[in-house]
């Protein structure tokens, strides 16, 4: 029996993607130079400029019927409710001839750069070293924006100016700051965003040679906790040893959140049972880079700890600096608690379990108060539909390797919102990051060959869906 004829679209699209890569990298460089940090305290004009730059790229593709830059208010129940959120880009093209509509998501806002001394090059000046481009947002997630734009350019070169597939480009402007206006955007632009399949380009791949489809995400619960024991500060020499200061109470209480091996000790926080690929401590050390004397924490398979088990981190403490420290008993201490929630458990249930634990373990009659709540639901992807099948085939053909279906320890809270609004849509979570991309950290970077293969995979998927009738 003769072998099946090769798919000519693969070769054509591969050539178009390769030929268009310099333009895609130039686009990425221009976007990285815009310091579009969406956090409070940073200039929102940069995020506005970033949105306009993405809108310009969308218009220049030449496939969209409409391109809009939208700003919607933050809904009730969130910090700064009623204020305008940061701008998103929504570009649309109507489907025809019974073809599906595909939404392409990415976000154009970025994390703060952090300490500039920890960067080997300027965080907002894209810098090439070897096969990597360094800069804040180079991987997370301006590379996602560029992936969509470059794939659409290649698609147009192969299919022409009038394909049948429906397209929605949705580039969000505040994902890194909690997607605060996301639900309002869904409500007010529901029909523009309605799609049969949604490609969320905000994740990563297994390694530099192996693509992945993300099929599981942990949820998130984060809040500020104020621990108080005194009405006012007291001289530590006069009252120390007789009255508890807030730092003592906070340290004692926070330590109860973990078992001796570092696993979570909160009753009511559950794990998700699922098999994970082989991944040993040596690979963990290679990818994460702990100090030589630091041991791993937790129990069970390493990837299960990252993907399928809860985790709790204290990410910040408001207390006097050493420079400003005085010999006083502190009346109050404020900490930021960030928890990851295993798939299968709601964020509300996890928050209730954590609060019940803290209240039960507050020492010396300490008073607790909370504010600044952020939550995101965990998510498990249904890979039984046609979209996942087509996506896995496209990844296989573009990378020349069998794709891994992997979980991710981080959270993308809006995925739950999308599925709640569009329950029939098929969700595909992809991305360009790799284990050394260092998203959210100094020296964030993008592996250029991975970007090229990711663009090709998306272009292949869109071309094949253009030929698929619903």
Describe the structure.
There is one protein chain. This protein has 470 residues and is an alpha+beta fold. It folds into two domains: 8-217 and 378-466, Aminopeptidase (3-Layer(aba) Sandwich); 219-279 and 297-376, Alpha-Beta Plaits. The protein contains 13 helices and 18 strands. Strand 4 (127-129) and strand 5 form a beta hairpin. Helix 1 packs antiparallel against helix 3 (142-159) and helix 3 packs across helix 13. It is globular, with a radius of gyration of 24 Å.
How would you briefly describe this protein structure?
The protein has two domains: 8-217 and 378-466, Zn peptidases (Aminopeptidase, 3-Layer(aba) Sandwich); 219-279 and 297-376, Alpha-Beta Plaits (2-Layer Sandwich), CATH 3.30.70.360.
Query: On the 0-100 scale, what is the average pLDDT?
Result: 95
The top-level CATH class of the largest domain is Alpha Beta
Strand content: 15-25%
Give the overall shape, derived from the CA principal axes.
Answer: globular
Fourth-tier CATH superfamily name of the largest domain: Zn peptidases
* Quantity of strands, as a count: 18
Class derived from helix and strand content: alpha+beta
Unreliable parts: 1-5
- Cα(first) to Cα(last) distance is 32 Å
What is the domain total for the residues? 2
Q: Any idea what the radius of gyration is? A: 24 Å
Number of H- or I-type helical stretches: 13
CATH architecture of the largest domain: 3-Layer(aba) Sandwich
Strand order of the largest sheet: 1-2-6-3-7-17
- Largest sheet, if any? 6 strands, mixed
CATH structural fold name of the largest domain: Aminopeptidase
Residue share in helix: 25-40%
